[in-house]
Amino acid sequence: MTRDEAQQESAHDTGAGQATAGAGSADAGPGPAGAAETLRREVEALGPWFQNFDLGHGIVTAPHHFLGDYPAVKFRAFAPALPTDLEGASVLDIGCNAGFYSIEMKRRGAGRVLGIDSDDRYLAQARLASRALGFEDIEYRNLSVYDIGALGEKFDLVIFMGVLYHLRHPLLALDLIREHVISEAGGTMLFQTMQQGSREVFQPPEDHPFHTPDTFEPPAFFDEPGYPKMHFIERQFAGDWTNWWAPNTSCSQAMLRASGFTIEAQPEAEVYLCRVADVPFARYGPAAVYPARQPA
Questions:
Q1: What is the C-alpha to C-alpha distance for residues 82 and 98, in angstroms, rounded to an integer?
Q2: Residue 204 pLDDT > 90, yes or no?
Q3: How far is CA 118 from CA 70, 124, 172, in A?
């Protein structure tokens, strides 16, 4: 997850943290020791961190994360599914949090990398981590996934990790990504969502009958464990009120196909590597009806 704390921190805290960081910078002396102390104070001022980085000088951002060295420990499990050489590729990291995946794509040689998030504190963390690790050319912007049409550009690789289940309108988000920001020339999306329920995959018919033939009973396949199901979470999940949805495996795959993606690999149960494909029923008009805003 990348937004568990995003909607529970205020902009006032961000401003105060940045002011504290500035004050700490003035107190630290010159030289490596002074620079390390300045960095330590900046990290502390922007806390808490959801993503853990080792910034050197013994400075780590989330050493007591409940998932361990997160998200590095998760990334190691599916990293081999991604190209090791992304030289010149453009990357959009949606819901970038503190920039972990943006930085990892830069390590692989990506050209333009843009991380977007709707939380200013996370963006400040991302800028700090990128600067400390020597990747200052990564761009970060405050932008919602619903407004990506305003970017007016398309990317070779779109990262959409740990965001879908926090959204009020998840299928719309996938439609907007497919329509506005992913390259038609073999564009790739790295996608992850929380999943709950069966991992079975049931292939429904192309056209659902209204009744079981010769009866007035509903078709039985709606009760199949592997039928695509999106579980709605009315209140909280794991103490987080922004966890709205939990698809089962079959539903995640069906939503990706319905939005115009083909799944090329599933390196982890919740992680999918996809490429652009034809959008089903596109002859009837665009799937994403949300209007594009003016250029960001």
A1: 20
A2: no
A3: 21, 11, 17
In a domain, 191, yes or no: yes
Residue 263 resides in a domain: yes
pLDDT in tens, 126-163: 999 999 999 999 999 999 999 999 999 999 999 999 99
- CATH number for the domain spanning 259: value is 3.40.50
> What pLDDT was estimated at residue 225?
94
Q: Is residue 250 part of a domain?
A: yes
Residue among 151, 235, 247 at smallest CA distance from 195: 247
- Is the full-model pTM beyond 0.90? no
pLDDT tens digits, one per residue of 34-49: 899 999 999 999 999 9
- pLDDT tens for 90-107 read 999 999 999 999 999 999
* SS3 assignment, position 231: strand
pLDDT at 285: 83
241 neighbors 157 (Cβ within 8 angstroms):
no
Q: Which long-range CB contacts under 8 A does 133-136 form with residues at least 24 apart?
A: 133/53, 133/55, 133/103, 135/102, 135/103, 135/106
The answer to whether 248 and 229 are in contact (CB under 8 A) is: yes
Domain span at residue 226 reads 144-296
Cis upstream peptide for 48 (omega within 30°): yes
Our count of domains for the chain comes to: 1
201: enclosing H helix or E strand:
none
- For residue 122, tell me if it sits in a domain: no
